[in-house]
């Protein structure tokens, strides 16, 4: 029936406009067949039961069905089915034409209500996508209105007395002689361009009647466009509603955390819970269960939870009735990682049965008196900085390790738990402890690219071990880890730092045969002198890097930072050369210099070298001037500091008071009084933490 209704809605406006409401040939036969089908449908409606909208019961009483149909749609259905021109032909013996018969024929459009009912049923049918059904409905409405407007606009031109002064007659003279489809396509073309507000102007109104029609048609298009855009907007927004609500909730939670200054661990728990809730929303069956009757809910719970409850040791041996009572009170719950399920000394209202996943017992004092000892390593692995600090305050050893030699600091540094790292440092943990693989917490932090944790640890390590940076560089060179070497140098470590044995990273890389690491260190400015090569200037025998390649790398590096030396009669310029004849990096000697020379370039940074990190202010690359006064003037201009009161330090923290000790490509740090106070306060806090940790341990021992 829907196909027949669509045919009627399309063909009758077409027949009225282009055929004077007199179908010919196949269209006439098709119209008669369609009318017969709708007449049969009227008869069958008297025998079709319906659902009462008030009682929601199926009505099968013949009298009630007949009365309902006669009092609602019967008259309009009959009026839209009667062949008026056929009846006139039978009565008068001729086919009548005129506006009256055309208007009566428009009653066939009443059948469109069946299409509306059809789309309404499809939208409620779960077998079909609501989105695509709604789109099909909007497309059908748009096409029907375009068709009707085009037919009516042509009808105005066809009935106008002066056909040359019509919208189509001005473009196509004698348009009635043209093909039917050319006229129809022209009408649809005008209708679509006007509806979409394109309006090329090639087909436009020529008389007052057409102008009036255009006015009302364009006003109607305003409402139609708003209707289409509103519906499509609702469809698109509804499809992304969950994601939008999730993002809004995340934003609100982040603002709440920042406004109330909640600790990082609590912030992570809030965000993890909200993310899990979003992912598991489709799995949440409690909302559906609340809508179902109790009998169905009981059967569902029995099917879902009874096999799980029966296997729990706590409920073994109880009757089936008791098990069924338990499962009716059971509901699923999804818990994100690192969530505290049950906290000690808090009254528990629920019993949890672990179906999938793992639960870790951090602290438990069983009723039998068996105490499961609390492990600092386990607490550090969860990132619970508050609980970790409480355990440290009662005197637990922060340097206890596991079977692999890993301490709590190793674990916290590798997982970037800044709160746990700070708690361990404040209680005097040893940052130099190595695990079974020779890794310190510093190595764990830089290997995992946790730069802020590494900066905090490195500052503490430098206080007790000035060669901590050299140890790290040599360890990375020994392992051939170029990426870690690059990260260490980004933190401002001197590439020529020495380890506890007095070896540099380049020396270690050459000795261990780590060719890639050696090449990287040479290109990063490592000194060949400090590498302590063999007596003939070649690399150690273990290396796979030939001496010629090393010299070539040095030359290539110097090309990137050239120092051009010109002879001057007013001064004598000397440059010490190595035994191999290559020019060493260094300062130009002499009191006078040529103006055309390219002097050494150095990098200057604001801040103390021990406390700078990757997020600090960027440095400046400058040409080294001839005098210290000129150097301080450049420092003041580039870094906006009072250079006269500032100290100039190298990467090792040594003060520089002469330009003669500065080499090309050196990194220099400008330390103001504010930076010195910051370093002094951090050193005092570290010393205080050591004192407090020792004091707490003594007091606990005294109580015991």
Précis, in short:
Helices cover 53% and strands 4% of the residues.
Architecture overview:
With 704 residues, the chain is mainly alpha-helical. The protein is 53% helix and 4% strand. It has 28 helices and eight strands. Strand 3 (364-365) and strand 4 (371-372) form a beta hairpin. Helix 18 (408-414) packs parallel to helix 20 and helix 19 (418-426) packs parallel to helix 21. The radius of gyration is 45 Å and the shape is elongated. The termini are far apart.
- Helix share, percent: 40-55%
Beginning-to-end CA distance, first to last residue: 93 Å
> Main β-sheet: number of strands, strand sense, barrel status?
4 strands, mixed
As residue ranges, the low-confidence spans are 365-373, 535-539, 561-598, 686-704
Count of discrete alpha- or pi-helical segments spanning 4 or more residues: 28
Order of strands in the sheet with most strands: 6-5-8-7
- What's the β-strand tally? 8
Radius of gyration: 45 Å
* SS-derived structural category: mainly alpha
Strand portion = under 5%
Task: Specify the overall morphology.
Answer: elongated
Mean pLDDT: 78
